[in-house]
Recover the amino acids of this structure.
């Protein structure tokens, strides 16, 4: 039977009411479709007993905090913004292993949630976990592809109880629920963005300098791809972003030798993120992106386009 979002909503709200009862819950909101839909459903079930928190990790995209705050306000959700960027960068210093990075991020998120939970006397944590998150984190006896911060990144001694109403859904089904809930297109169709944010797009050690470079490159990649898809030069990818390889190569700027970082453009077609094919872009689109990146970001000397499907790659770099 095809997935029916109306039926899903009707069945899920009473289940949440039963699970949380008269207790309070805190929702970790990233501004993405999953955490927003989960929060709207829980908000409908328990009303004022839900506290929504957006953690500014310092790893977000350009103006993300302000954008998320505004978009969610329009959807009727008020969020508390908690700035924890110094702590995230401190804990990530010197860490290069992707799984270690993800686990540290998971732990840091929970520390922020637990601090607020204590202040607000909250006992449940609402997360927008969906099927691929726990499947790829090794759920159901599968191999761990990557520990999604909201699943395998959770500390074992976590005191908060979990409420995850979207656990059995795929991304396209979450989008159907979002549309059924009447959320605007800016939310329901927003391209996926991982919880660990730009940390999984900076390969290896995460530093404020590298995050800033990938943040600037992301703005260019997003702008150019959106423009090209509006002009019908390309089909709009399912997900598109910039990532950074911490490798420096030699180049020339003006008449001088340069030694600069490498940016990778990633753009994929997918239905649910479980498999993906790289988007086939005409060279002129790629050239525009590459030229802007090297002109506008002086620390970048080379730009590559990732022509790998998933499998064998994953969508994100780590
Ligand atoms: P991968 O890289 O595993 O990504 O092929 C599949 C989809 O999941 C997103 N992703 C995440 N989302 N927490 C999330 O909320 C995470 O830790 C995480 N890691 C990857 C990724 O952006 C893609 O859409």
């Amino acid at each position: 039977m095809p997935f029916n979002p109306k039926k899903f909503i009707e069945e899920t709200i009473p289940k949440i009411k039963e699970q949380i009862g008269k207790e309070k819950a805190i929702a970790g909101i990233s501004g993405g479709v999953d955490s927003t839909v989960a929060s709207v459903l829980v908000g409908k079930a328990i009303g004022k007993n839900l506290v929504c928190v957006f953690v500014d990790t310092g790893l977000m995209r350009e103006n993300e905090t302000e954008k998320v705050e505004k978009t969610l306000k329009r959807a009727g959700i008020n969020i508390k913004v908690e700035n924890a960027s110094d702590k995230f960068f401190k804990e990530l210093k010197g860490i290069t292993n992707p799984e270690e990075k993800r686990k540290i991020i998971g732990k840091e998120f929970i520390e922020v949630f637990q601090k607020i939970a204590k202040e607000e006397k909250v006992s449940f944590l609402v997360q927008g976990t969906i099927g691929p998150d726990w499947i790829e984190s090794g759920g159901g006896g599968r191999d761990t592809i990557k520990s999604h911060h909201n699943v395998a990144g959770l500390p074992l001694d976590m005191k908060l109880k979990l409420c995850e109403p979207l656990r059995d859904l795929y991304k396209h089904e979450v989008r159907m629920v979002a549309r059924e809930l009447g959320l605007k297109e800016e939310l329901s169709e927003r391209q996926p963005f991982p919880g660990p944010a730009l940390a999984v797009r900076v390969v290896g050690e995460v530093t404020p300098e590298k995050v800033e470079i990938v943040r600037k490159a992301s703005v260019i990649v997003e702008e150019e791809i959106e423009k090209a898809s509006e002009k019908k030069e390309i089909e709009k990818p399912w997900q598109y972003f910039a990532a950074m390889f911490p490798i420096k190569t030699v180049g020339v700027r003006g008449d001088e030798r340069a030694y600069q970082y490498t940016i990778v453009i990633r753009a994929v077609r997918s239905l649910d993120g479980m498999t993906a094919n790289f988007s086939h872009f005409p060279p002129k689109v790629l050239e525009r992106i590459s030229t802007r990146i090297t002109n506008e970001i002086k620390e970048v000397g080379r730009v590559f386009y990732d022509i790998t499907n998933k499998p064998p790659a994953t969508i994100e770099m780590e």
Residues 132-133, 136, 146, 148-150, 192, 194-196, 239, 273, 310, 314-316 surround xanthosine-5'-monophosphate (CB under 6 Å). The CA atoms of residues 58 and 86 lie 8 Å apart. The chain has a mean pLDDT of 94.
